[in-house]
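User: Before I run my own analysis I want an independent prediction to cross-check against. Here's the chain; please return only the structure tokens and, at the end, one sentence I can use as a sanity check.
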Amino acid sequence: MADNTEKDLQEVQAFIYNDEVQSTLEEINNHLLPINVLEISGMGNQEIKHSNVLAWMFGDNQHQLDDQILSKFLGKVAELEGINADTDDENLKKLRHYAYFPENKRDITIKREWKHIDLLIEDKANKVVIAIENKVWAEQSEHQLKDYENVIDNEYPKKQDKENKVSWKRYYIFLTPDGRDAKMEQEQNTAQEIWLKADYQIIYNILKGIDKSNQDIPEEAKMILKSYNDLLIKENIVASQELQELCAKIWSQSKYKNALNILIKNEPNGVAEFLESLRKKLKNLGIRIIDLNKNTETYFAIETNNYKKYLEKEDIEEQSIRFGFYVVKNSIAFWLEHNFGEYAGLLKEIKEKLNEVEFNTRKLQKNHANIYIPANKIVEGIADDLGKYNLTDKNKANELSDKLIEIAKTVDNCFNSLLQKSEKSLPIQAVPCSNILLAYRTLEK
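Assistant: Structure tokens:
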């Protein structure tokens, strides 16, 4: 064992002190920004903030690029859908023509979260409206896109009606990191037939091209555009070919693979330190910690003050409803276990409150982690990408623990609300209730 350890140490030292490796690592480092203004803001992969930046880029704003980014984006969307000279799709032909040769100078208005649509681009000069549904990692909700189509139909009619309202050309774009199709919503009218797919690689390539062209734009705008592309790479929303090639220069060398595997195997993840810090914060708030596994402190429940008061007041049976957190592979999730329908009022209130917590990047998938689920229970939840929380970085670890504390407080506030309603003697049916456990479960990678 000692000989193997010494051999591993020698291989790692040979790797670290290799001039070629150091040169390549320096290139990789230089490929990413040391300071990213959007990363500092905590943007990560939060859809709302991404949509805000996209709205700024697509409009004629301080970047002084006019509608150049929007024009190229629409052209590439048509290209991604497979448009060619022989296509019979008139809608795509019109979109491509509008992208590069609009009949009139565009008069763009961009609306954010209008009627719940992420981005609505309205061009009054050309009577064109574009709805963009932005899904960084979140899943598409049932009937969501069809609802948006109905809104557009009512507000921007395709044909002139009896009141001689102007007709609009309507386009629908489903933007995701991987350029996937929108899910079918009904048999007669599939979302795939209406919503054009687009990926973030399009955005990245456009901004990369603008950077290389050295266009005369304000330095502040350059910084934002560079920061956005840098963020897309760091959050694994897009892949950088240059970065992949640099990494391949190291990984392709068989002599380095053992050293790389040793480094990966011994990579510090900061989980233990993070959990210790989280437990201290919870205790400082007067929240009781209940260890559920005597052999480890990585799986525990917490008892919040208002939960305890409500449990005692209403003599609630335990284990009817539970909330929790867990870490598995590259995800951290908040999950909710309950008896279907029995706690509709409580669940609705909690879910509404959790919408205010910037944590729900995507829906929790079934069998996301190895957690036992009783046959009479349903589990649903939301997951966040753990990759953006480098737990070895104290600032990032604090950011994550603060979010977990915020979620704990949010749920506790819901029980406080239930307590107040109970004191007003509302009917039990109007105030569904049960106990709550907030559990944090860490599974080793």
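Sanity check: Residues 365-373, 425-445 have pLDDT under 50 and may be disordered.
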